[in-house]
Amino acid sequence: MGYDIERFVGPVNEGLLCCICRDVLQDPLQAPCEHAFCKTCIEGWLVNEVTCPEDRQILSSSRLKPLFRYMKNDLDRLQIYCTFKARGCPHISKLEFLPKHESECPYATVSCPNERCSVLVSRRDLEKHLNTCEFQKRECSKGCGIMISSADERKHNCIAELRTMMDSLRSEFAGKMAEQKREMELRLNMQRGHMVQKEAAMQGKLDEMKSESSKLSQKVKLLMDSETQRRQDMEKLEIEKKELIELLRGHRSSSVDRSRLPRPGTSKRFHKALQSKVTEI
Ligand SMILES: [Zn+2]
Ligand SMILES: [Zn+2]
Ligand SMILES: [Zn+2]
Ligand SMILES: [Zn+2]
Ligand SMILES: [Zn+2]
């Protein structure tokens, strides 16, 4: 259904009227034949029909398009009275801003927000109603601090209410504690797992280091053995050197005594041996 033409200030172009309800277009849609309709009007029509109500051309809802932009602009600019004019609202707005105004119009009807209250009042009277609404919650007049409505005040018992409240708080607390305990246990188990892994890794490293160190001490032992061997060799060589020197001295002093000389071949061999000994030393 469109807007009643009587609600508009000034004349409305014929082209902005719905072809079905003859009111001013509301949520307009256009057929390929360029006839325009309110969304609800044409959707209702197409439930039983398959043609445009104006010229009987074939029509289906999938072929409906938004209104031409220039027509939509003309429609949006129309000046309209508030829906609640009859209740006293004097507001006039452009059609495009009407929904916004009506959502905050002081003359619009609203329902009381209190649960169980079914009263409908003008938005501007809501506060007055809430002051007297029997379902409006206020702090208990006997001083327990609980919020209750005057409708519930007669059957309200401060001590019983407080006890129920405490019970529910206690069970809520117990639930939270149990949850925290579960969480802590979970975390501890995870940490324990990590520790075990770390310990295993450290043990591995320790074993590695032990084998490294035993290898090193073996090497040291080998080195020390070879050092001892070298020293022994040196001592042996020193003795041989001394013997050779002795031998040489003896050889020189008896060089006149030809009979004590070794044969020529022997002398050559002796010299060679002496030379190699000296280089060795
Ligand atoms: Zn219509
Ligand atoms: Zn048509
Ligand atoms: Zn209004
Ligand atoms: Zn109320
Ligand atoms: Zn109370």
TrEMBL record:
Pfam families: zf-C3HC4, zf-TRAF. One of its GO terms (biological process) is regulation of canonical NF-kappaB signal transduction. Residues 251-260 have a biased composition (Basic and acidic residues). Residues 101-144 form the TRAF-type domain. GO terms for molecular function: zinc ion binding. InterPro entries: Znf_C3HC4_RING-type, Znf_RING, Znf_RING/FYVE/PHD, Znf_RING_CS, Znf_TRAF. Residues 251-281 are annotated as: Disordered. The keyword DNA-binding does not apply. Keywords: Metal-binding, Zinc, Zinc-finger. A zinc finger (TRAF-type) spans 101-144. The keyword ATP-binding does not apply. Residues 18-56 form the RING-type domain. PANTHER family: RECEPTOR-ASSOCIATED FACTOR, PUTATIVE-RELATED (PTHR10131:SF157), TNF RECEPTOR ASSOCIATED FACTOR (PTHR10131). This is Uncharacterized protein. It comes from Pinctada imbricata (Atlantic pearl-oyster).
